[in-house]
Structure formats: C-alpha cells, structure tokens
Specification:
Low-confidence stretches: none
Strand content: under 5%
Number of strands: 0
Order of helices and strands: HHHHH
Oligomer: single chain
Length: 92
Amino acid sequence: MEMLRIILYLLVMATAMPIGLFLAWLCDDEVVEGRKWFRIILYSLILVGIVFLLVYQNIPMLLSLGYMIIVTCVSIFKERSMGKVGSRRKKK
C-alpha cells in the first residue's frame, strides 16, 4: 500500500511541469506584468515549505507546496528564457 501511495505522489508531481508550461502560455500577460508577485509567492511557498518540513513533517502538505513551487518556477523561468511566453495575440 505504501508503494502505491509513493507512485501516486510521483505521478501527481510529474504533472506540475506541464501545468506550469500551460499556465505560462495561457496567461502570458499576467506572467510578464506580475513577475514581482510571482517571485514573492515563490519565496513565501519555499519558506512555508521549510517550516512544514521542520515542524510538522506532513508529507501531503509538503507535496502540495512542492507542486505549487514547481508550477510557479516553471511559469517564471519559461517567460524569462523565451522572452515573451507564447504570443496568442494577433500581431498588428
């Protein structure tokens, strides 16, 4: 039963990168304009994750925070590496 739980955790965590890429593509304006806020969210999530790791040692909560950290990192770094993420807008 424990092995099944670990496999399920890994499968869920493996979806974080595609979801982050999809959100970066879908919300390209928000990623560009809100880069400062994404960084604040990222650092807050890392800090909360460290506290939960040291104090509570709650694995599902850590996995949830890890998922959010991965999605946020992918959104930030995808935008930075390619300039504008995925221009869905019509060019004039």
